[in-house]
Amino acid sequence: MAAHAHTDDSVWRFLGRVLSWSLLAVILALGVVVIAVPKIAGAMPLTVLTSSMKPGLPPGTLLVVRPVATEDIKIGDVITYQIHSGVPGVISHRVTGITLGPDGTRTFVLKGDNNSAADAEPVISAQVQGRLWYSVPYLGYANTLATGTDREWIVRGGGVLLLGYALTLIAKDILARRRQSSGHRTAHAE
Description:
It is built from 3 helices and 7 strands; from the N terminus they run αβββββββαα. By secondary structure, it is α+β, with helices and mostly antiparallel strands. It folds into 2 domains: about 40-145, Umud Fragment, subunit A (Ribbon); about 145-180. The chain has a 7-stranded antiparallel β-sheet, covered by helices on one side. β4 (about 90-100) and β5 form a beta hairpin. α1 runs antiparallel to α3 (about 150-190). The radius of gyration is 26 Å and the shape is elongated. The two termini are about 20 Å apart.
């Protein structure tokens, strides 16, 4: 009976470790997707706040937008642009038309996928911030909570917590192995 209880305990311990390590891996992967990759690539993470791009990009979706040369923008691309040139507010919509001015400058007609009409004003090249690189549903909510210096502290604190958690798991595993091996030595001595 004692052997059966030991086996059950081992199974639960194993499942707990698998779950813990899986959770740690998911959190680290999310950190890479949300923070590391955009920073390395010179991209910016944004959050969809309205339903204008539903169903593909519903509110709460994290968008990662990379800078792009305006001559590389095509119809169908989702781009992020400043509402007014030089002012921080941005919109991410799909390019539905491109016009070429007499001087060779490009302007873009944009429309939200869920909107019935195109955006009121054409967008000039100076307003374009970048093109959608990738998106992650629901992760934008977390991105919205942490901005500027808050994000830096959250990332550092999260890193410390994850490192501490990993060290705790390793220490518990080492202690369990020591207990198990000392138990085997005691049993052999008797």
